[in-house]
Amino acid sequence: MAKNAILVAIDGTQAEQWIPLLKARAAGRDLRIWPAAIGDKADIAYAFVWRPPQGLLATLPNLKAILNIGAGVDALLTDPALPRLPLARAAHPDLTKRVVGYVVLHVLAHHNRSAAYAAQQRERVWREQKHPSSDQVAVGIMGMGVIGGEAAEVLARLGFKVAGWSRTAKSVSGIESFHGDAGLDPFLARTEILVCLLPLTAQTNGLLNLALFRKLKRDGEAGGAFLINAARGKVQADADIIAALDEGALAAATLDVFPQEPLPAESPLWTHPKVTVTPHVAGDISPTAFADHLFAQVDRFERGEPLANEVNRERGY
Ligand code: NDP
Ligand code: OXD
What we know:
- With about 325 residues, the chain is of the alpha/beta class.
- The chain has helices spanning about 15-25, 75, 95-110, 115-120, 145-155, 180-190, 210-215, 240-245, 285-300, and strands at about 5-10, 30-35, 45-50, 65-70, 85-90, 140, 160-165, 175-180, 195, 225-230, 250-255, 275.
- It has two domains: about 5-90 and about 285-300, 3-Layer(aba) Sandwich (Rossmann fold), CATH 3.40.50; about 95-275, NAD(P)-binding Rossmann-like Domain (Rossmann fold).
- The protein has nine helices and twelve strands.
- Strand 1 (about 5-10), helix 1 and strand 2 (about 30-35) form a beta-alpha-beta unit.
- The radius of gyration is 21 Å and the shape is elongated.
- The two termini are about 35 Å apart.
- The site of oxalic acid has 6 residues, from loops.
- Oxalic acid (OXD) binds near residues 70, 72 and 285.
């Protein structure tokens, strides 16, 4: 008879943080830790996963639900053998605050000319850079979901002229809204600091390319067009970012994510003077904040309630 055990399959070094915390909060639940201690696969009813190996979940005959320890489910959905079961993603205030903090930090860094001041400090140069007020600078957020929506509101409170672009129409007070294919060009034409918070799907793959960068507003008070990608690397074309920086379509870029991670040592992005690289850390989710939520999801499911933040497989996010 199935035992409603929970598989924990977390890729990489993050597992070291997560496993003791999950064990401490398991409250008698039977945890099976991949890869060493899965036991009888027929016992497993739930899976807590972050980038599990492709095909693993398909080998669990009594699996009932999959809980992703992250907001993006692109790595799971590219598994051709992924079972068609309820699948939930992470949408949690802790994660949202972290990514919004990252976005605000880098919008302000571009706005406040931080790179120029860092270069001046190295040369002992005391010179004021031109600082437009935030209400003269247009920020555009691609992806107005849980994280993008919050980032838009925080940046609007800081005074920026904020617009959002999403798949479906939105109406948010103080935020100019654009949606769909028809809304993209007008959204880009008014945007000086472009922030990407889109999921990776068939529609968004490669969207951040040279043709798109050329449509951004670069003659405004911000002093050029800037890119911040805190979402997924495959939404961007790295070579096009370099080309856009070199021709002036982009003035600078902050990149947390890359088509290939870790970013290869030979990538010119590492040393480009107009690029800031961070190693996919915008939204590192904290196990202390999220472990209880995972067990609460199992409890909901067992009460017959739908999972919170269930992924729409057709939409891809
Ligand atoms: P949500 O699912 O809440 O929001 C996604 C948004 O993108 C929605 O507004 C959606 O539109 C929009 N969207 C999706 N497809 C399209 C499209 N084809 N055209 C226009 N808009 C589109 O996601 P979250 O806000 O929670 O997270 C966003 C992404 O951020 C995640 O998928 C993940 O990849 C990434 N992320 C990265 C982290 C990091 O550490 N770098 C940390 C956390 C998240 P609509 O509202 O109309 O559905
Ligand atoms: C996520 C991430 O999707 O950290 O949560 O990238």
